[in-house]
Amino acid sequence: MTDVVDLVSQLIRIPSVNPRGRAEPAETPLAEFVADWARRHGMTADLHEVLDGRYNVVVTVPGDSADTILLETHLDTVETEGMTVPPFEPTIRDGLLYGRGSCDAKGPLAVFLTAMAELAAGGPRPHTVTLAGVVDEEHIYRGVLALRDQGINPVGAVIGEPTSLRMVTAHKGCMRCRITARGPGGHSSEPWGKTNPITTAARIVDYLADEYAPALDAKARPLVGPPSLAVTMIDGGSGPNVLPESTTLTIDRRTVAGEDPHQVWGELRDELLRRWPEGVDVAEPHIVDYALETDPEDPFVRSVASVLAGAGHNPEAKGVGHGTDASKIALDGVPCVVFGPGAIAQAHTPAEFVPLDELHAARKVVGELLRSPVLDTKGAQAR
Ligand SMILES: [Zn+2]
Questions:
Q1: How many Å apart are CA 48 and CA 314, to the nearest integer?
Q2: Distance in Å, CA 103 to ligand 1 centroid
Q3: Where is the Peptidase M20 dimerisation domain positioned along the sequence (predicted)?
Q4: What number is the average pLDDT over the span 299-310?
Q5: CA–centroid distance, residue 27 to ligand 1 (Å)
Q6: Among 52, 110, 157, 265, which one is most buried in terms of CB atoms within 10 A?
Q7: Where are the beta strands (DSSP E) in 87-172?
Q8: Closest Cα to residue 108, out of 326, 295, 302?
Q9: SS3 at position 70
Q10: CATH, residue 270
Q11: What's the 105 CA to ligand 1 centre distance in angstroms?
Q12: One domain for residues 285 and 305
């Protein structure tokens, strides 16, 4: 059996730093390694170009049923500047494996690959298992969006991210937009009769903080709490003696399940334009992420919980603050859980690490899950 620690170490040695806006095939050597490793371990593997010579890797082990379990995680990591451990030279100290991506998300990737290799080697294979290692999760999610376009329709998905072995089923979404107040401008010594956009913006800020945001409490969800709104940037004025012609606010609106971000934006815009019919406009929203809330009664989710409980881990569903690829996959109605070794508190840090015992534990949980004939696509009896 391939040692999961050994494989994470090999993955860390292959840099895959997200190039952000630059056109660089950053994850390609890692995608090629994963495809080659998978083929050498009896699996089929394909590369799918997403952009700029950057590829998602898709690995499959066919099972007795065409019903597919999707294991999804990302190939890219964040930058390495300021790291206090060697980013690409895996180091083990006191039961912890250090290196960029060790917990986010090469640990989960190695867990998935080694569990699938064991499946490919023999024994019961109740389901087809597909692993997707995608690009660009740390930037604007183009890898998972391309994966959705491929039309994979699994009965359930495990998204590999550091969750300290907890089963995460909910997180918030995020919508941002800019609100601009306008006025005629002019000399500040003659302000009479002129709309000052800074004054308008101040009133909008008061309205958002005192009326709009508190009303969001009524929409609280059990695992993630209420939606929120914060004014995060304000920009206006050009000189101490000039009436500004415009002032722009940026808002960050965190959404919960049941809220469509475009609808949230439309309602906010309508309300602001009703209150300030002139001199205010609300720009198109930027949808940063969608909210995730997986039904805890879904058979796949109960299967994961059951395997966790059987292995002596906490099977309770958990909500987290940060977004993942799960929210995009869930848009197609796929029940998604986020699971993996290592803590989100270590992700993106100067001394990123993953505990070895959690790697082994996660490997056991995923292996057990892939062996369990528990799913029914009709949503009927789970074990
Ligand atoms: Zn991640």
A1: 36
A2: 8
A3: 169-278
A4: 95
A5: 14
A6: 110
A7: 91-93, 96-98, 127-134, 156-160, 167-171
A8: 326
A9: strand
A10: 3.30.70.360
A11: 5
A12: no
